[in-house]
């Protein structure tokens, strides 16, 4: 989905109001989209969520990409490997950062478990804006031994976006 009005309200409800049924909806929708690309699905051996920082998990009580990934993995019949990627830096809220600042904030933020199997991984995030998070998390998984990484995101920020400030 596009992370723009009106669908951005779904992500807001998930993240700010802990409406976990929306993570399930997003996971099922993402599974449907992947099934339409059989060559992508055939490659995947497992699903790995982007880990949230400890600060974000304490604030929200959960990891949004983790909840989406769990449902996605179940829908696709794949394992969800939450321990294969970890966050090494606390980071901060990225929603107000430009592309360069996001790149700097995520460049050294992820580390994979060593000696991963040489398989293709579906890397799941909730919202992809510049791609920096996906890029550096994927590099960490590749350094850990993954054969390849497919970026999977429930929502994608369009280049030019209007936000309804009443709910953002």
Written description of the protein model:
- The chain is an alpha/beta fold and 168 residues long.
- The protein has a single domain (8-156), classed as Rossmann fold (3-Layer(aba) Sandwich), CATH 3.40.50.
- 43% of the residues lie in helices and 18% in strands.
- It has 7 helices and 5 strands; from the N terminus they run H-H-H-E-H-H-E-H-E-E-H-E.
- It has helices at residues 8-17, 20-35, 38-43, 54-60, 64-76, 99-106, 132-144; strands at residues 44-49, 85-87, 110-112, 120-128, 148-156.
- The strands form 2 sheets. A 3-stranded parallel β-sheet has the order 1-4-5, sandwiched between helices. Strands 2-3 form a two-stranded antiparallel ribbon.
- Helix 6 packs parallel to helix 7 (132-144).
- The chain is globular and about 40 Å long.
- The two termini are 17 Å apart.
- The relative contact order is 0.21.
- The model has no long low-confidence stretch (mean pLDDT 89).
């Amino acid at each position: 989905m596009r992370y723009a009005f009106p669908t951005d309200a779904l992500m807001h409800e998930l993240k700010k109001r802990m409406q976990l049924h929306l993570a399930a909806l997003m996971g099922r929708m993402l599974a449907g989209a992947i099934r339409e690309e059989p060559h992508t699905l055939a490659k995947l051996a497992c699903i790995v969520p982007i880990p949230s920082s400890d600060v974000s998990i304490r604030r929200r009580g959960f990891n949004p990409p983790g909840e989406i990934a769990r449902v996605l993995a179940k829908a696709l019949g794949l394992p969800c490997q939450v321990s294969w990627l970890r966050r090494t830096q606390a980071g901060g809220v990225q929603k107000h950062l430009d592309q360069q600042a996001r790149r700097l904030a995520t460049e050294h933020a992820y580390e994979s478990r060593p000696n991963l199997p040489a398989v293709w991984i579906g890397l799941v995030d909730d919202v992809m804006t510049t791609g920096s998070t996906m890029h550096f998390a994927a590099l960490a998984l590749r350094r850990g031994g993954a054969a390849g990484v497919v970026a999977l995101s429930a929502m994608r920020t369009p280049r030019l976006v209007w936000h309804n400030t009443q709910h953002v």
